[in-house]
Write a structure and sequence with these properties.
Layout: H1 2-28, H2 34-38, E1 42-48, E2 54-60, E3 67-72, E4 78-82, E5 84-89, E6 95-100, H3 104-107, E7 119-124, E8 130-133, E9 136-141, E10 147-152, H4 162-170, E11 173-179, E12 184-196, E13 202-207, E14 216-221, E15 230-233, E16 238-246, E17 251-258, E18 269-274, E19 281-284, E20 293-294, E21 302-303, E22 310-316, H5 332-339, H6 353-363, E23 368-372
Antiparallel strand pairs: 1-2, 2-3, 3-4, 5-6, 6-7, 7-8, 9-10, 10-11, 11-12, 12-13, 13-14, 14-15, 16-17, 17-18, 18-19, 20-22, 21-22, 22-23
Length: about 375
């Protein structure tokens, strides 16, 4: 019994000594502040290269500028990218691309239209050399990793008038296509949208220039960047969307419509273009729509695995946008009556008007899944 009492007395003495040591140590360290907590860096968007020999990620505080990190798996090489985010490796990991955000000090409190554009940083993993691309709208590697695509933003020209700058804003912007293996590059002007097949043989892109004389759908042979672009469709005043590749045969499906302000019943049609053909085939037009439905430009295209079917959507006609009516009015009262809006709610209505409007916004944009054989 005496031995047990001595044991507990010694244990209590040891506990008191540990508490005293902890108190003395705590006095030497300052208390953690909210600023310390906000400076903790969070790892985001980690990615691994194809062979697993490189790891990349971005680290950012709760408030402030972060950085991107590229580090070898053996930790012998490490490269930092100031304000780097969203790292992406090329197919074999020979290159990596970071998006570089502008400093917080230049964006905080500024409207989106006045903020600096993003940049992109290209790094060669073999030696860490970096290349900066400014004013970046979109950037990516080709599927095979040999090509880099940098789509630039529009820059306002202070020497031009307001109307001229508005035209520039509505037009396409330069697209840089760079062959990383051969160190060759070409810049395509007035590009609005673009896509490349998985074998990196063709780049398909739309042109929207300020004069509208060269608008249309084109392709560029990636095997020869300096070749003249080929024409797919430059007829009329068209707009193009939903580029979808069937990769086994390098066949592209897309939707074309007249470039009008609203998605009216008469405009959209579905086309398919094969790389070795000069012109596309029209697969679907408005006449193929069932009664009470139409083919909307706002759609989604999906190939079946065997390429024998193309899935898309029809939409009920009641959801079609109507062209703006510019009528004449007999009087001011007539004008007010035709433009007046009023909400009438009945106590037995299942939804109040705000919910009805929200539900209409959701359902009016829904398409019914359909298939073309």
């Amino acid at each position: 019994m005496r031995t047990k009492k001595v044991f507990f007395r010694n244990l209590f003495s040891l506990f008191i000594a540990l508490l005293s040591a902890a108190a003395i140590s705590a006095q030497d360290k300052r208390a953690m502040t909210l600023e310390d907590i906000m400076n903790f860096h969070h790892i985001q968007s980690p990615v691994l290269s194809y062979y697993g020999d490189w790891v990349a990620y971005s680290a950012s505080p709760d408030r402030g500028d972060g950085y991107g990190v590229l580090v070898s798996s053996d930790s012998k090489k490490e490269y930092l990218v100031e304000r780097g985010e969203n790292p992406r490796f090329s197919a074999r990991g020979r290159w990596i691309l970071f998006i570089q955000k502008p400093p917080l000090s230049e964006t905080e409190g500024s409207p989106a239209s006045e903020r600096p554009n993003d940049a992109a940083i290209l790094i060669r993993t073999s030696d860490g050399s970096q290349t900066l691309f400014s004013n970046v709208r979109r950037s990516s590697f080709s599927t095979l990793g040999q090509f880099l695509f940098i789509h630039h933003q529009t820059l306002e020209d202070t020497t031009l008038s307001k109307d001229q700058n508005e035209k520039i804003k509505k037009a396409g912007t330069p697209l840089l296509v760079k062959n990383l293996e051969k160190d060759q590059q070409v810049t395509l002007p007035f590009v609005d949208s673009w896509t490349a097949d998985s074998l990196s043989t063709k780049l398909v892109y739309t042109v929207k220039d300020t004069l509208e004389s060269n608008n249309g759908l084109y392709y560029l042979s990636l095997g020869d960047l300096f070749s003249s672009p080929g024409v797919i469709d430059t007829s009329g005043k068209g707009k193009f969307s939903r580029f979808t590749w069937y990769e086994k045969e390098s066949m592209l499906a897309y939707i074309r419509a007249e470039d009008t302000e609203k998605d009216t019943i008469e405009t959209a049609a579905v086309y398919a273009w094969q790389i070795n053909l000069d012109s596309p085939d029209q697969l679907l037009k408005q006449d193929n729509s069932p009664d009470g439905y139409f083919l909307p430009f706002d759609n989604r295209l999906v190939w079946s695995n065997d390429g024998e079917r193309l899935f898309f959507g029809f939409r009920p006609e009641r959801y079609a946008a109507k062209p703006d009516q510019k009528g004449s009015y007999a009087s001011v009262t007539d004008s007010i009556q035709q433009h007046a809006e009023i909400d009438i709610w009945h106590g037995e209505d299942p939804l109040i008007k705000t919910h009805e409007k929200a539900l209409w916004s959701e359902t009016s944009g829904q398409n019914l899944l359909s298939v073309f054989h």
